[in-house]
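Quick one - first record:
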Amino acid sequence: MDKIFIYQFTDPTCVWCWGNEPELRAIDYLYGDKVEIRFITGGLIEDISTFYRINADKSQIISKSNQLLAEEWVATSAIHGMPVVANNMHLYTEQYPSSFPQNIAYHAAKSINPQKAKDFLRRIREATFTEGQRTSQIDVLIELATESDIDPVEFINQFTYGSSQAEFISDRMKCRRHGITGFPSYLIKRADTYIILGGYQRLSSLQSAINRLSRGRCHPRRIGPSLANVTEFIKHYKSVYPKEIEVAFNIDNDRASLMINQLRQNKKIHTSPVGNSLRISILHPKQASHAGIGTEPTSTIESSQNNENKKLKSATFKIKEKALT
């Protein structure tokens, strides 16, 4: 049977796209290589000063726009269940007024390693919505790329000199050709047949489209919500949120909370508060012996940091070099 492809029309800073992460992870986890998820970047905000209709000077417009976006994040989080940290949100400034750099950065990473680029996109979303980072800044993008196991020098070369900007423009044209006017939207395809779904989607809607396109022959794995299976899910993705467990295992918030508490009491996981939710990761044996807080040997950290610092200095020099030409 032909593979099913799910294309999400997206922007790394779209709060509704962040809200659909649980559904995309559930599809990935339950269907495996039967379904492949890909991303088409449309660019949500070209210039924040023109995104809302606000009559004021530019600095006041940007400040008010950040405030309005923060309010939207909180309101939508109450619906989709993924955490946000909106206090003193300052994603946009006069120097960084656009979400286009995050989109271009995704294409830079994709040209290096498509799978790692997906992890990188996830980290951009996470850093934007739960860590308060200004993810349009190149130094922040370099750090997130490095965390995603992407070589920082190669990333900078692709971001600065590669075809990533052209790829982003090409993606924007795809959005227009398909009549996409909002994010997320989805094109779900098998061979030459496809279905377009507009807006935030529940897992059942995505599964219904998969079922229609495959004529009922593409089935998800049946994985029960046992403590062992939930632990494996967390281990597979390294870092998850309660809503992602709820969606992947089709359980309600109360049951997910109970299981998370049991795993924490059994010293299987580590949790940390994030906005209105928790970030969950596997607690490794060495960490468990230190009351849930693990540390690397200092020499290992210092050696790793020295190597990365050398790479980043070289990458930064290249950016400055281009600025002078």
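second record:
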Amino acid sequence: MARSLTPPVAIVQKSLTLFAPRIVVALIISLLTTHYSLLVAESDTHGALSHEYLFAPNKTFPYFESVSQLDATSPATYSPQNAAMLAQCSMLIYVKEPDFIEEKLTSAGFTDIQFFDTLGTYAFLAESPEHIVITFRGTETGDQTDYFTDAKFLHRDFTENGRAHAGFLDALSHVQDALQTSLASRLEAAPNKTVWLAGHSLGAALATLFGIQNFDSVDAIYTIGSPRSVNKSLAEHWHESLPIFRVVNNNDIITRLPGPPFYQHIGPTYFLAADGQLITDPPKPRVWRERLKGHGKLTKRLFEEHWSEKDFTAIPSDYFVDHSTRLYTEHLIALAQK
């Protein structure tokens, strides 16, 4: 007897039924974050937990003053120094003035800097005598183009080994050819240079996908606050071979979106605990304990440092606070200095 097949429409309906709640959550998060940022922007006070402090493009941060060098001794091994260095790049790229970015990168020894800005996708390539660093900008608060990119959650074929997030692939396509051409010409002139990729949030997803596309040319990928970007088969294919170091701040909600089983992360998790300790692939009970500790610490800070002082600009959720590029960078610099 022939085996009955599930009609394609039924498959789509079932998939949407399973996945729709996660899509709704993601869209609500985007809308609430935008609305909240517009409200607090009207305030003259911006505390240490405000959107302005945590997420706004930052020109006062001491970029590359504490950690200013990459260590290429063993790029395929996690390095606190490299994590701190590339987190600073992932934070710096949110600044809107290319001259400021170039000034800070030059202070860290990068002498040739190229910018890529097409249809909302932004990246820079910075070259020094020893290194080439490519950094992608992440989702910007209030940028509807970025929100639409994040919301294009359906899979699309991506290499023969699996599928990836259609929105992320669209965003990468705007700059990938120019980036690949520039990278190839630089490696042809200096084949021994170490190539690093970096990014935060959407930028982390783009760095991951660009790393897959250019696996033979890339030495290491450091991402912070990365959403899931590929399906299970692609994640399993690259799990052992892609040199990716994916740092997750304990309650960062973006790192849990889009949800499984449709999307997976690649490689191990470098988990920042509530006390700032870095743990590699912690067991689930430890993860939940650290997340509860993180919520507790934030609640205490809200009462003691903000609400008691009538400062209501503080973001009242650790799910959002922990996605801050500034917090990631500060944690990783502190770990590099130990």
